[in-house]
Every structure is written in structure tokens, then in C-alpha cells.
């Protein structure tokens, strides 16, 4: 088997393992909390611990991979996922579970590292297809947890959920250790420690209130202080990076039109995407006594999301060949607009399972186009020795967008809670309309940088054969 095939299979396996951990415990969070003695705040921390760990590890380990070798950092991050998944499966209490979730969060660094490994291994003619397929796998993995959590937990218990990421991470480790070559392109210099501390600081200060503001109160002194601290630390971080001879994140790179517009689109579409993913199943599970809910169980809600995974995967694998006639920038815009239409459809038409499943399929189509085109636009716009940090920051920005999106959805829906504890239908309608607006705004953003000249490097990578052909030949 050729090195390109091994690289693709190894990275695809690791992407699925890590991406599934984003949503795997959400449908069974209450069940886990009951078993390990975690109250509502503790359950929120199970999500927040992963989120913050991933946000910090993604750019830092991505940059470390640029400097000391992506293979080494890839194996380190994937090893943390395997250990964290094993700990989660046997966690006796909240403390152990939080440690496990932090370790799992470190694995988010495999996304920028994996894209860098693929860029090193693949010839230019097949690179865009490979990146598009991996992006689709990453997106499918993110939604996979929502689909399988209910049925798996009902069949073998919630602890069995962590067998999937454990097995996949172990397989990815074996393939990576024996099959991946060491990265050819490396950046010179060192990690700027002050910049790393400031970056970590403002990410933590921002994500803590975004994920826990509903419990702490948005007007509480702690939340306000954290937002102020985030703004101050972010300003200090930018200042340090601009003045540094060895920046952690090259601000000149971040100002490239193809980079900053793609990052802003990732923020907006990430907010819409994660908001819809989190609350579409909840809408379906709302009791029929509410007058609008379908009253389905978690397993059925997961099946409603299944068409999304099918369309996401299908689009992701054809995004590369499609770029011959439809450039990635156009795919990004179309995908965002389709996602917006899907969210609006949920707001207006949610009276039966088929309507929601059709909207989920459309959402998968749009999300597949967005997630496949985004890393392609980033990778082909930056030097090879900056791929790790550039894609890491893009993934982080999408994560921040996801935190913002779920918070906004929660606020819109929670504001209409009635005496019985159920939100009014208007709350869900408002939330999904907001999701539509965010997605459409993300689709408009690429036009903002169109008048600027794109670096020649951005056109250096032609398009592409699908990696499906690679796998077929290997078989």
C-alpha cells in the first residue's frame, strides 16, 4: 500500500475518533451525570472541559507540529484520546471524568496536524480531493455522536459509547506509528512562550462564560470580568505577535484575504451549525403536550439526524472533483446559503419527522460544502510550514463560533420557558431563524475579500482526484 493511502486512512481514522467526541455525550449527559454524581453544573463542565482543552491544544500542538514534526505531535495527541476514552469508560466520579475529557480535548490537535501530514504526503493534483474528503469525515464524525448515542446507550449503556473513539484512536496510532513518514516541511524558530500563554488565556477567558453563562448569569460579575479579561488578553496577544520575530501566529498570514474571510465564515457558519446540531434533536424530543413537539425518544431523534451524515459524507468526497467547475470559494458560499435555508426550514416546518429529516439532509449538504472548502482555501493559501497553525486557528475559530451558536440558541429558547418547564414554540422558531441569518452572513463574507489580490501561492494547488479512487485501488 502506498504512503499516500496509508496517510489518508490513518488521518481519516483519527479524525473520526476525535470528531465523534464533540457530540458523543450530549444526548446522554443527564444519564452520565446521574451515574457519576454530577449535577447540572458538573454536566456542563463535562462539555466545557473538552471545549477549552481542544481550543488551547489545537493551535499550540499544531504550531509544535510545524516546528518539530507533525507525525510526533499527531501520535501524542491521538495517544491522549485513547487514554482519555479509556478513563471515560471507567470513570467512577466527576473528577476522573473531567480529567478524561481534558485528555480527549488534546486530541483536537489531530485536525491541523492531519491536514499538514496530508499536504506533505499527497501530490498537488490529488491534495484538494483528499482534504475535502477528510473535512467531510471530520464533519460526519462530529454529527455521528448525536446519531448513535441514544441507541448505543440504550443497548449497552453509556460507558460503551467510548469504545468507538478508543478503538479508532488505537487503530490510528498503529497506522500512524508504522505508516506515516516524518514531515518534510518544518518552520524555523521556536514556540513563543508569552504568545502561547496569552493565546491560551484569552481562549479560556472567552469560552468559560460562553459555555457557562446560562448557569452563572450573564450579568454576573464573574462573567463580565471574564469577557473583559478575554478582550484584554486578546489585545495583548495580538501586540506580542505583531512585534515578535518568531510569532506563534503570523498576523501577516492571518490578514491574507483568503484566510481572514474563510476564518470569519467559519465563525458564523460554526455558530449556525453547532446550534442546529444541538437543538434540532431537542425540538424533536419535546413532548407532544407542548403543542408543537414530536415527543420522540433519543434513538428516533438520532435517526432524524442520519440523513445529515449521508449528505455530508457524499458532498465531502466529491468537493475536490467538483472544484474543477465550481471553485472552493463558490462552494463555501453555496454551502452556507443552503445551510441557512435548512435552518429556516426547521423554523417554519417542524410538524413531523419527515420534515425534520429533509431539513437535516439539506443541512448536511450545506455543511459538507462548507467544511470541505474551508480547509482547502486555508491550505492552498499559506506556506507549507504554516499549515498546522493556520488550520489550527481556523478550527479554533469554528469552535468559538460553535460555543457562541449554542449559547445564542439556548438563550433564545430558554427565554420562552413556561410554567411547566417547556419552552414555547416561538423560542425554537427564533433560534433557528437566528441560525439561518448567521449561516447566510457566513456565505456573504467571502465576497468581502474578493477585491483584494490573492497571493500566487493560493493558486499553486490544482484539483484533484477523489481519495475514494485511492481506496478502491488499494482494495
From TrEMBL:
Stretches assigned to the Major facilitator superfamily (MFS) profile domain: 6-454
Source organism superkingdom: Bacteria
InterPro entries attached to this UniProt entry: MFS, MFS_dom, MFS_trans_sf, Tet-R_TetA/multi-R_MdtG-like
Compartments, record wording: Cell membrane
Pfam families: MFS_1
Principal place of residence: membrane
TM ranges: 45-62, 74-92, 98-118, 130-156, 162-180, 192-210, 216-238, 258-280, 300-320, 332-350, 356-379, 400-422, 428-449
Keywords per UniProt: Membrane, Transmembrane, Transmembrane helix, Transport
Membrane topology category: Multi-pass membrane protein
Designated name of the protein: MFS family permease
Organism: Agromyces ramosus
